[in-house]
Amino acid sequence: MFKKILIANRGEIALRIIRTCKEMGISTVAVYSTADKESLHVRFADEAVCIGPPSSAQSYLDISKIMAAVEITNADAVHPGYGFLAENADFAEVCESYGVKFIGPSASMIQQMGDKVTAKETMIAANVPVVPGSDGLVADVKKGLEISKKIGYPVIIKATAGGGGKGMRIVWKAEDFENQWNMARQEAKASFGNDGIYIEKFVEEPRHIEFQIVGDQYGTVAHMSERDCSLQRRHQKLLEESPSPFMTDELREKMGQAAIDAGKSINYEGVGTVEFLVDKHRNFYFMEMNTRIQVEHPVTEEVIDHDLIKEQIKIAAGIKISGKNYYPQLHAIEVRINAEDSLNDFRPSPGLIKSFHSPKGHGVRVDTHVYAGYAVPPYYDSMIAKLICKAQTRKECITKMKRALDEFIVEGIHTTVPFHKAIMNEEKFNGEGVHTGFLADFDFDKVKKYLDK
To answer: How far apart are the first and last CA of the chain?
Structure first.
């Protein structure tokens, strides 16, 4: 087992990893930018190293600075968390060359799944269902129009190196194709330095359902069931739950096996997530694979009573997994508490938190790195906390979440707490859940009644 792990990340996920390491008797090293000097992950790590100014490019994304911190602290492993360098094949390769264990898959596995075109080709070879679309990258507008006509509108243009909705455009008719194509390429180039584009059939009213998988160094892959991540804004998840209210036992078995097949196709090592689109007829299609821990991993932890960070560390240390598949025993919902103004297009709301009170009680969990007196910096992702509730049934879980949100007090900045209160009282959400386009028609005036509650 590792003696010391450096966490190449910040905020709540860094603190989350530190907690598990302490329980396993492993020393921890936090890295931080000058903007994060007062963050709790810095306070609770055994050691902390400043790696630069607030800019991510000069701190959390600077591989040379992180490896320097590894060297001066004698860490024997690096946990990348999520975001930043978590799916950076070069970083994984550098760690390997230094003789430091990257807690995650190998560089080649990250490369195979990181490029969406390559990932799709790999899934086709593994007989995992994929969305109809182009065979690889599309060379130009003319070819794109031909493909779109063949598979039928609407289509979705996607950046091969994309993520978080960037470089992605939905096209409903041929006349709009060229303009959307140009915008997708420009955004992809600016965001990822790669303007490669491919095209897929746009699945209308889809559910975004993902399967948690684990794979060890000996070829064994298993799944830990699904999470429903369909409530999204511009392809960014806002709420996740398990089990999916749209799921059936038969569909779970089919999707779970497809997720395992996806992992086995690349001899996957570590904790990962296979993401699917599921149409209203419950046909499912591979979308992408995330080769890291997910923001929403606590949802799975709560319904199967399993520490996924611990699982990651054990796999990286060469410990075999059982090969057993896990299924939800309870219902859990996670909402992301972001420093954003949901009534103004979710505009970021950095600033000083004057008062902070997180909810407590049976079946309530809060993962956060902030506190009263903490200044939310404007340089990073706006998420300041995750609120997770679990109960015997979905109905009970929603009721518990309503109570917990009423207890969640953050003063000094805008947050998404009122938005989530409105969602918990939405009739469609209380039914079979919602599809990914739900917020396009949502009446945000409903949020106003919860602003002062």
So the answer is: 48
